[in-house]
Description:
The complex is a heterodimer of chains A (142) and B (787). By secondary structure, chain A is α+β, with helices and mostly antiparallel strands. Chain A has a three-stranded antiparallel β-sheet with strand order 4-1-5. Chain A has a single domain (33-139), classed as Alpha-Beta Plaits (2-Layer Sandwich), CATH 3.30.70. The mean pLDDT of chain A is 94. Chain A is built from six helices and five strands. In chain A, strand 2 (67-76) and strand 3 (82-90) form a beta hairpin. Chain A has helices at residues 3-8, 18-26, 49-57, 98-102, 108-112, 123-130, and strands spanning 35-40, 67-76, 82-90, 118-122, 136-139. Chain B is of the alpha/beta class and 787 residues long. The mean pLDDT of chain B is 95. At the A-B interface, helix 3, strand 2, strand 3 and helix 5 of A face strand 4, helix 7, helix 8 and helix 26 of B.
Amino acid sequence: MSEQLSKEIEGKASVYPQARESLERRLKSEDTSGYGLLIDYEYCTGCHACEVACMKELNLPLNQYGIKLLTDGARQMPDGRWDLNHIPFPTSLCNLCEDRVSKGKMPSCVQHCQALVMSYGPVKELAEKMARKPKMVLFTPQ
Amino acid sequence: MSQKQWQWQDGEYTVTRSTHWSGPGCHDGCGLLYYTKDGKLEKVEGDLDNPYNMGRLCMRCLNQTEAYNHPQRLKWPLKRVGERGENKWERISWDEAYDIIVEKVRYIQKEWGPETICGMEGTGRNIIWQVPYLTYAGFGSPNYVLGFLAGDSCYLPRAAQQAVMNSDFFVCDCAQFFEERYDHPEFVNPKVIVIWGNNPIITNGDGFFGHWIVDEMRMGAKLIVIDPRLTWLASRAEYWLQIRPGTDCALAMGMLNVIINEDLYDHDFVEKWCSGFEELTERVQEYIPEKVAEITWIPKELIEAAARFYAAAKPAAIQWGLAVDQQVTGIATAQAINSLWAITGNTDIPGGNIIAKSGFNVDDGYSCGYKWVSPELQEKRFGNENFPLKKYGLASTAHGDSVLRAIENGGDPYPVKMLWLQTTNTFANMASEAPRVYKAMKSVYFNVVVDLFMTPTAVACADIVLPAGMSAERDSFRAWFSPLRAISKICEYDECKSDEQICLELGKRLHPEAFPWETVADWINWKMGNDKEKYPDAFKIEWSGKTYRERGKTQGLTYRELQEKVYVYPQWQYKKYEKGLLRRDRQPGFNTADGKIQLYIDLFDAFDIDPLPAHIEPPESPYSQPELYKEYPLILTSGTRSWEFFHSEHRQQATMRMFHPQPQVEIHPDTAEKSGIKDGDWVWIESFRGRCKQIAKLVRTIDPRVINAEHGWWFPEKEAAEPSLFGVFDSNINNLTSQCQNGPAGYGAPNKNLLCRVYKVTEENSKVMPGEQVTKKGGWEYVRATF
Lengths: 142, 787
């Protein structure tokens, strides 16, 4: 380290937070449908109805999913209680049921969800709903 | 999107609102929309206008089209041409099939008597009055049987107990009997729900849409879950009581001990509406929490806390299930649990345990047509010879274990010459001790199977196989429980006929006087109490003495009108015991001898059955058989439902097998490690009766002393002929379970609490597969239980 540089920064560490901020500004944005899926994963029971509803709606072959159930647990936490959570995750094949929605129907996964934990709507409305209850996740597949 | 019609055109599709109940399906009766085109079912959706399921559907219903259009479906009647088990068949016409059956029935009736014919079915769906009617009125036999179900251990122990204790059936209040559901002004959400011995979100047992529990959780209900396994509901519970399988009665008595001794019960309700409280109080003193903790393996503090939590909640409800029945204490367990909701004042109140009724009381279920059987023949019903509760009319079916015994012992008290098996894949599923039942069934003179697919049962034993239609291929209805719902025929498949059509057509040939109806719709109208003018004689026998509560009368609503309405919710009220709505004399109270809920059941006393609940150790347990336990050091529980399958159904569907390809047994990693078993290994599960193989799934959520195996497995993709029989014995957990080990009164069987061991499958120890052992070598050597 040169003598001059060491003198300049004497007493304080180097910082340049602008690098990350700049990158985040530069990340590309795209138009979206403006609609999303809000899921209350506290009450998702993992019943697979969304997955099969989607396979039927999109007429998908075996091993293809428009929405896929992901599971964490059951894992025992330090306090002895068990953590077990399911989240249905929309894949790249999810088109938010554009055919159904254009006819005024709900997306098939949303309608058939047995626990009634899925909502479809404008992202802004879903975000407001999301703020009123913990353990929610919002997806914007398109 | 609301549709007010029951049927309409949507582009190229005809859309029909209907109810699903028939196989492949489950116990539920969800509202759905069938989309058909050119007479073919193309698509299924939930019916948003039906308040029962509110547009929701499970993966099995959503995948129905795969079942309807499956290439392996039975298409026309078949006659066996090879030996039983060879899977060689010849196509015949319906007329030929009926002619053969009628000839055989006449011959058997003449040679051995009509009682030697047993009508059997599997789970209770829309064959629950049709097959009994055919058995009683068509074959003239008193022996309608649930396909070799040991100890009638599916709801019937609870039904018999509830009938004598309070004369009605109870269920957790989910506002399910109101069309406006949770909006009904009197409905109150339960503060606490106890989930006892079932996983309703998967099982949907006894006409209960399991996710209603999730609705109520989301409206604020807290849970207590009693289950040997951590279910999803248990993961969300305030208290999860991880019980040793088969000790539920002890737990319920321990909870009653806490509630009574800590004075947490409802004095007013007990005084006014219960009898036998003093006797119960005395009996529960034997069940102090310390002792109950030892019996159940649940920590004492948890038992006490759960009891207090339940008793303090007003209102609270208990949703119980099959595990109650599948222990030798089935009746006593049910009695103890029923006592919990009785003494806490949760009987038939909003948010409590409410009295369930069939829609318009239409439904005699298993007794339909019994009056066609003479009193002399009724006396001969299997089970009466050993069990007074059955003899005195407190049973709606003949006793499967007794039928098995009579086949095996060469005909004492009389032989069994014919089995009519309608939608029951017995030894693949419902029958315990599958190899034993297989052998017995094969030895019966004449067998007919009615089913959707060629099953192991049909290949092994059937002489005639008849193809049945699925839900959208039949006119039918559902009344159990309310609301009354229509099932509408909108398509056909080859030569398949509905179960109703088959029963009616055969019945007309066998006994025209008892089957006067021209069409299935006419038969259903009769069942709904209508068409008295059209078929005046049809009412004479079945309907005599049934004016009470206008039993089975839809007040003029015909079947066709019901179809157009889709469903009807009759009026339903809370606290019926206060309003004189339960008793024959229309006085307040329950329809029991003393008008009260009998905590001490007098009638049991008269029949030499313990009138109060008591724990009985499972017949094969670490404590009842310590020597056996050394050899078989694990408790075996089974019967856990999967999302993908209903019992032995759905195994043909590629979509279901994608999610759940093979049978799995849950083992704790510590237990597995001791035997060198890794996750995903095939393992042999073995009891002293036999063995089967499943894939080890290591889970930390099960007690290391317990393993949990799946039931109902067969492999439609495998060879049908023996020794394979679609691989039905290779993974069949019922190679390990038992027949003829019933609880008192012939009810209850220890299917979910036996002893076993597990070890890895190797080439060396797999030289003789179970299929070969059972079909070619006479099964395994051991002493068959009897009574």
